[in-house]
Amino acid sequence: MANVLLVADHDGRTLNTGIARSVACARELGEVHVAIFHAGADAVCQSAAKLDGVAKVLSVARPENAHAVAAIMAPQLAKLAAGYDYVLAPSTTFGKDVLPRVAALLGVPQVSDLMEVVDARTFRRPTYAGNVLVTVKVPDGIPVLATVRIASFQAVEESGAAPVEAVQVDAELPRHTKYHGLSDPGGGERPDLQSCPRVVAGGRGVGSKENFEIIFRLADKLGAAVGASRAAVDAGYVPNDMQVGQTGKIIAPQLYFAIGISGAIQHMTGIKDAGCIVAINKDGDAPIFEAADFGLVGDLFQILPQLEQELEKAGL
Amino acid sequence: MKILVGIKRVIDSNVRVQINRDGTGVVTDGVKMSINPFDEIAVEEALRIKERGEAGEVIVATIGPGAAQQQLRTALAMGADRAVLIESDEDVQPLAAARTFMKLVEKEDPGLVLLGKQAIDDDSNQVGQMLAAIWDRPQATFVSRLHFADGNGRAVREVDAGLETLEVELPAVITVDLRLNEPRFVKMPDIMKAKRKPLETVPLATLGVDMPPRLEFGRHEPPPKRAAGIKVESVEALVKSLRERGML
Amino acid sequence: MPGPSPATRIKALSDENPLATSAAVPRDVMEYDVAIVGGGPAGLACAIRLKDRKPALSVCVLEKASEIGAHILSGCVIEPGPLDELLPGWRDDPPSICVPARRDEFLFLSRKRAWRLPNPPQMHNKGNYIVSLGALCQQLAAHAESLGVEVFPGFPGASALFGGEGRDTRVIGVRCGDMGVEADGTAGPNYAPGVDVHAKTTVLAEGSRGSIAKQLIHQFRLADGKSPQTWGLGFKELWRLPPGRTEPGLIQHTIGWPLDAETYGGSFLYHLDGDRAYVGFVVGLDYRDPRFRPFEAFQQYKHHPALTPLLEGGEIASAGARTIVEGGWQSLPTLEMPGALLIGDAAGTLNVPKIKGVHQAIGSAMLAADQLVETGGGAGFDVRFRASAAGRELYKVRNIRPGFNRGLWFGLANAALETVLGGRTPWTLDNHADWRSLRKTAESRAHDGLEAMASAWRPERDLPPRDRLASQYFAATVHDENQPVHLHVLDTDICRTRCTEEYGNPCTRFCPVAVYEMVDDEAGRRLHINASNCVHCKACDIKDPYEIINWVTPEGGSGPNYQNL
Q1: C310 CA to chain B: closest CA distance, Å?
Q2: In the list A159, B166, C59, C329, which could disulfide-bond C398, CB 3.0-4.6 Å?
Q3: A interface test, pick of C315, C473, C477 with most A CB neighbours within 10 Å
Q4: C522 domain-assigned
Q5: Per-residue pLDDT tens digits for A108-128
Q6: What is the pLDDT of residue A185?
Q7: pLDDT value of position A186
């Protein structure tokens, strides 16, 4: 059986939510060992050990690993990778930062944003911002290095109980890079539009800046970020950093509510990779209904309060 | 110090990319090509660093076909001092690109290498990191703020959790993200001046790069069309459907 | 016609954003012997000819598109004669789309049927080529650059520069558009003032309804004594089709359905190689009913049973729209003024019955170049053009288009007569102004024409694009939203009061890409301009019934990104 080394992303306390999805990809390829580089994050190792499909957790603890610095982690991971057929990382900023460095040290190519396993050495990945999907094959005789597009895989369950093994990696570590801290971008109380898994967006149908309150309320109920169509921004209902679409932000939330948005293709380009699109619009012929997974035709000013109530009733 | 900026000639971001008939690639005939937008931001940053007096020379380089001279001239028109075209008609993959750039780094000995974080065609996001590894120097990727003090660079990186600050000893490789700056417009008189700035062409084959194994590209296809969904009759039905889908 | 006088309208409309006219903004000046505004076939042909004949001349071409060809949209079947003269070797290195014409078809359509009619002599295309004009322009530009012409894509000529006063006023060049101006007209962080290009002669080659040409025609009264200029609005789509359906080199034109006898227009269909075809439609902008929707007429045509089998299952690769100048001989303004010349479609040299303008554009461009080289100035160009083969060609067909002002059947009969007589009729019919041609809504309802026409239309369509916004997507048009709106409407109160009542806001229907919308929300009813949809066709500048819309150049590089059109 092939063996897969998956390096995990964490913040010292919790495992990144993308790891459970990365494991789903990894276990399609072989026996999965998860590597955690840390300086005392045993809880993280324990969390990783619970993921279904993980055969072993490798805990690489040393003070230099307190924060994920690519130049410090890469030589260790390169050494650890010896003997593995696959070395994977989630395609998060962590994985994107460290894995190519490892690939270069090993002298092998890397597949970025793996979205589908076709066979043991063949994968599909997105190019041109997801507009062209390409099948790539890694030549024989070298390990496969890949970052995993986590949105393409479902998280595995947490019913496992893999052993956690402390590992010493003998590698010379550079001192030319220092971590100086992490700060919030200072966006305020609402979740970030670009990264929040749920988004509620309003269009011209909302009618005014004051009326947009109804969108904000639903978003708060759902813990969602708030977006808007270009028409709503143009009409002055909301500022333009909330614009979603071809000329605004291109987002891929898991759940997207399009409220009073007609769904012109320019808007749809901004949400084509959304998981589930819900459309609420009083015009049953609006193009949005052709792309929405669930559509409800009606007056948003009546529907949204009802929706809030239903969510309340369902205990959400 | 010298700043080396790597740029790539890519299909313009406004073009609707089309896959060719046999699915082996995208249509490039008659299609507008431009500097990769992230690389343009890298060029702009290099120029600002120079204009602040922190660098002496900005060299812009690309690996590509002869026509990539067009993109180098644009960078020269923005204000770069000289350009290098490492000429190759082949598709050069990230690790090969990184090893090739290393040859230029060895020759030019820059204090800073700036690259866009990824090219909008391949979206690999690898070259900067690979170059840093080969050069055995620091990397700071997805940088949205950059300044220098005492021979070190302070880079603010846009990461999933927020903004991370790294301090890197120069020389180093920085890959830049969208919010670092807004590139200047090229001005007409500068286009004329750019024609007289040095542009050196070096065939890739003469550099003696140890070419790594290549990924083999197969089928190109468009993303699957979203299946048409269903219209529900009531708010209750909507919530029920969403719960069944695991969305709530 | 009540409202501000034409002079006031144009003057007010020429007021650019304050930065563009402010004396306080320092600008670079670049000097040339000849500055050409517009990188289309006329502009590039003129540049090439100038350098061919007098290499020492300094020549520049200013082009608003981000690259040559990006704003070029034309049928296009070209007569190669003038191109052969300009560039004898062009057939050795033809543009990427270049298909020799093989067979002509001229059809009359009713809702369900199609009848072959004899090909009018003007539509015999043997020896001609179906090309992508954009691709041809790219080749012309490359050739021009190799001769030392300085071509500047991304730099629009925004307005003319004048020297002298009163009767001595002359055009001394053009001011290029400012970059980095914010939506409110103030300078943004990357503000870059446009260069002032000074030239001994400025050549306006902006194409149909050029914005500087419009300014100059007014300033120098070049249209005095001429018939009003008139235009059509052309739509075009490039289709990729399932294999085996196309007959490369087939050129097909239709008249009749979906238009009625009162509305001038028809379709074109050019079969290319590689299982591709150009599908298009032209409507005269002198249509009468304000409720008419030109885009919809185009889409209806595609659903005719003669056409659907070709298109079903295909996909659109690229699409766009552009107005076509149709006035011909009698609407040609005086082509020269102190310091400047008008050539190509900016002048109006297109031959309507042939539906061909490129050979004329190139012809007029070469004549202009020859005039400049031979005499050192433009004086005499107007007479020279009119006496030339290109001018005579226009004269010969001058009565054909205006004949259709009396409806399809009279137009066809008149066209036959004019063709047989070779234009030797002793009269010259007048054209009429498009902006005056709309009937008011109430009158139109009584007239019933549109209802009759629309009753023969399909209520639903299944071929793409779904609607104008979906079509706009294929034009790949881009305008940074943070810039001043480039469609200047002099008085938007008229829009929501008089125009709503009199014409029902026809701009919301004739714009090919739904730039104009009447919005009604809590803030009230108003005109909303989606400037970033604009494909630079100029229909609004032409057709609006109050003449209050002035199209000006947006920030350089903005606009469509037509590929292979």
Answers
A1: 18
A2: C329
A3: C473
A4: no
A5: 999 999 999 999 999 999 999
A6: 63
A7: 61
How many contacts (CB atoms, under 8 Å) link A and C?
33
Domains contained in chain C, number: 1
C13, pLDDT greater than 50: no
Q: For the segment A182-210, what is each residue's pLDDT rounded down to a tens digit?
A: 987 665 678 889 888 999 999 999 999 99
Neighboring chain A residues of C473 at a CB cutoff of 8 Å: 265-266, 269
With beta carbons under 8 A apart, name residues in chain B contacting A127: 121-123
What is residue A314's predicted lDDT score, i.e. its pLDDT?
84
Nearest CA in chain B to A74: B133
Residues in chain C closer than 8 A to A287 (CB atoms): 466-467, 470
pLDDT value at position B246?
Answer: 84
pLDDT at C363: 98
Q: Which residue of C has its CA nearest to B31?
A: C563
CATH number at residue C170: 3.50.50.60
Structural domain for C58, as ranges: 29-76+137-228+329-396
Topology agreement, domain A3-166 and domain A198-313: yes
Record: contact B166-A179, CB cut-off 8 A: yes
The partner residue sitting opposite A126, judged by closest CB among B123, B141, B232, is: B123
* Cα–Cα dist A145/C452, whole Å: 67
The CATH classification number of B2-244 equals 3.40.50.620
3-state helix, strand, coil in chain C (%, to 5): 35, 25, 40
CATH topology of domain A198-313: Rossmann fold (3.40.50)
- Output the DSSP codes for C71-111: T-----EE--HHHHHH-TTGGGS--SSEEE--EEEEEEE-S
Q: State the pLDDT at residue A188.
A: 67
Domain chopping of chain A, boundaries? 3-166, 198-313
- pLDDT reported for residue C6: 56
pTM of the model: 0.94
If you classify domain A3-166 with CATH, what class do you get? alpha beta
C522 near A CB under 8 A: yes
Task: Show the beta-strand stretches assigned E in chain A.
Answer: 3-7, 31-38, 54-61, 86-90, 110-114, 116-119, 122-127, 132-137, 144-148, 164-166, 177-183, 198-202, 225-228, 255-259, 276-281, 294-297
CB C154 within 8 A of CB C65: yes
* Whether the predicted pLDDT of C8 surpasses 60: no
